Amino acid sequence: MADGGKGRNRAAPERVEAWEWVPPLPVPDLTKSAAAEAEPEALLASFDLNVHWLRGGFRASLFAPTDQVSQAYLDDLIATDLVIVPEMTRRGVAIDAGKLLRIFARHNGHNLDTLQRSLGYDTQSFNDLVDHFCAAGLIFRVPCLPDEGRPDIYYFCDTGVLHRLFNPKWQQIGKGRKYFARSWEGFVVRTICQRYGLEAEVFVWREADLDEIDLVLRWPNGECWAIEIGIGENKRPSKGYKGGVRKLAATEFTIIHRGAIDWVDGYERMTLEELLTIRP
């Protein structure tokens, strides 16, 4: 595929990654000189995870003084330096870069075959494009097991960028909630994988009988985490999740949501912050 002229002519923007998060430091006693000697890295890592999810990890967006400043930065990044978009497919079909990125955003959290059907590209051009976007750090993909023939699921790496590509009418509550739910799911998946899963087999569990687990991490020593993810405050284990946990013989089964830290039906529920705190 031919490449357009758009590309990174400037240094890559600085980033702060969600998996670097640590619990907030106690409010310092400003009368003590020690407060002025706090390590910059420690202060940086105490950002709010929800803000990171909404604004993404580019420092100029994450730490912007207002949402409007954050959004303007991301809009400029998308228009100028986010990623090189090919001008056409291998078969000579012209590619509208803006429309292409919006379609990728719309299908975030779906299997790749759903995205290909929406785009209508030939398989070779589509695979080239997905590989290119993965290498550029725009998206990442997670395989599905036990059916290895099922296409991977993909997510955007930066959810701030993803949200700026969403239809402006979509909101977290009401119309568009499902898009934000998949955004949150991808944010949690990437954070956990980068924090804990670099030496693990990582996959999504999907079976024809609807057994489903959003994220599985399995290590050679037999340790296996089965993680269900919900954007709400009262996520409960589904029948399919329970079935998948049994089939995988998971050693740990956790529900990540944005509500209470408790147990329900024998499964532990907690926030992402709590997980990152108890497993530093």
UniProtKB/TrEMBL annotation:
Pfam families given in the database record? DUF4143
Biological source species? Sphingopyxis panaciterrulae
Q: Protein name, please?
A: Putative AAA+ superfamily ATPase
Residue span(s) of domain DUF4143: 99-229
InterPro entries membership: DUF4143
